[in-house]
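Bumping with the actual sequence this time:
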Amino acid sequence: MIATETYRSLEVGWSGSLSESRKQALASAFEKPPEASDNLLAGRIRPRSVHVDGIGRVIVKHYYRGGVLRHINRRSYLKIGKIRSAAEFETLTLVRTIGVNAPEPVAFAYRTRWAVFYQAWLAVREIPGGISLAECSRAEPERARAAIPDLEDQIHILRDFGVLHVDLHPGNVLVDAEDQVYIIDFDKAKTGVANRTGLAEYYVNRWQRAVAKHGLPDFLNYLKAG
């Protein structure tokens, strides 16, 4: 677990050593209200892209509830177990060490509310020229087809190391400017999953449900995770 420090009413974990100006830029980005997304495959809240001197462009993610509970309490989580942004920061660090292409985590933050609730944020380096595989499959189908083998290699690594990405779908896969594939959004991921066959089946079933639900090109259905 990365140690945190109190900074401007936030508890923040930094990746490496950050200057005061970089801390200020990230804290300001965390505190700025998010924008609604018009793309359900990319989530209901649009991640914010900001420039931080000495780091470059980073993506700031706000954690918001989905499902029925979002109508009652959209931003706050009970302070039980790991903080979600800290857990995702750790998972991103882990999967990058085992050879998965995932965004580089820069910092995470949370703010405690009424002692038992918290709000959370995560900052990762932006993937240059990144476009989701969902968008790519519609706009540039041949490019998307060519990316599938690379994606399958990434999924095989997750399977072999027992990592469960709970929401793997074409909206959470990016193709960068060099046509490399990245898997994003490891929120609520689980590690140490022993059933590799079940893990592969989960990935395929979750993927195919998303392809069908969002009317994506049929060639995406033939993903191999086993």
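The tokens above came from a reply further down the thread. Residues 5-125 form one domain.
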